[in-house]
């Protein structure tokens, strides 16, 4: 994508967001909606400027939980996907079990984790890990299995070792799918960390929103939502930037998208 196309895309998004915020502000003013029901964008900006230290302090805690949970999901998900692809036993036994376990809402395990691990940060990290783990391992397995049989047979006919086949054929082919799983995983890690803070925490953005809800502080709740949206967008785009740096050939193959 050329610089001109990037600028046009950024300008289009910015204008759309500005128009929606202006419409929101106008509707609140025209219909006289009180702030305790629906604050205007200006009310939210003013409150964020007023309580920026509180928001940053709680954001830092949530960010640590998100990154720790995501790192665990990557650290366990990708190696486990490799084992599933190369081991028929794990592919036939453990993978179906994992898919079945995914049907269980991970948040329902929170009371058990609290009983076993307490109310500390470890519980929130594990919940973020459990929620982000599944899309990463599934995308990794799909990507590692996407290599054409003819290509693998050609590599074997050239006396390539299993490691060489993995590094030069399977892994490059799988990287787009793996990074797709990372993008989904990092956003789900945000969800997991915040939901865990709803249930068992005395700090973090989830706790701050819960406290604001108990105090009927709608403006602060919107401030937390804005912070979570910003954090999620930053992490998502960071993963996208790493993807573009790691596999530039894939971007070029798609016409520089």
From TrEMBL:
The record's section on CDD domains has: TM_PBP2
What UniProt keywords are attached to this protein's entry? Answer: Cell membrane, Membrane, Transmembrane, Transmembrane helix, Transport
ABC transmembrane type-1 domain residues are 59-239
Q: Any stretches that span the bilayer, and where are they?
A: 56-85, 97-119, 125-144, 174-198, 218-239
Does this UniProt record's set of keywords contain Transmembrane helix? Answer: yes
Where it sits in the cell: the answer is: Cell membrane
**Gene3D superfamilies, sorted:** MetI-like
**How does the protein associate with the membrane?**
Multi-pass membrane protein
Stated family: Belongs to the binding-protein-dependent transport system permease family.
Name the record gives this protein: ABC transporter permease
Taxonomic source organism: Paenibacillus shunpengii
């Amino acid at each position: 994508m050329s610089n001109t196309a990037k600028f046009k895309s950024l300008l289009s998004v910015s204008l759309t967001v500005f128009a929606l915020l202006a419409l929101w502000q106008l509707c609140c003013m025209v219909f006289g909606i009180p702030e305790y029901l629906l604050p205007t964008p200006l009310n939210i900006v003013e409150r964020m400027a007023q309580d920026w230290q509180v928001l940053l302090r709680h954001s830092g805690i949530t960010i640590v939980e998100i990154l720790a949970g995501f790192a665990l999901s990557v650290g366990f998900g990708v190696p486990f996907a490799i084992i599933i692809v190369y081991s028929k036993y794990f592919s036939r036994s453990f993978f179906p079990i994992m898919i079945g376990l995914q049907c269980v809402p991970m948040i329902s395990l929170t009371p058990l984790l609290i009983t076993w691990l307490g109310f500390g940060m470890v519980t929130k990290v594990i919940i973020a890990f459990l929620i982000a783990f599944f899309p990463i391992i599934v995308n990794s397995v799909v990507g590692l299995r996407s290599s054409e049989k003819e290509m693998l047979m050609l590599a074997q006919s050239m006396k390539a070792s299993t490691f060489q086949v993995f590094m030069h054929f399977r892994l490059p082919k799988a990287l787009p799918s793996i990074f797709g799983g990372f993008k989904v995983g990092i956003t789900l890690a945000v969800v997991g960390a915040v939901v865990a803070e709803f249930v068992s925490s005395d700090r973090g953005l989830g706790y701050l929103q819960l406290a604001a809800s108990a105090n009927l502080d709608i403006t602060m709740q919107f401030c937390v939502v804005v912070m979570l949206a910003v954090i999620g967008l930053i992490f998502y785009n960071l993963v996208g930037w790493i993807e573009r740096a790691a596999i530039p050939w894939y971007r070029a193959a798609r016409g520089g998208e």
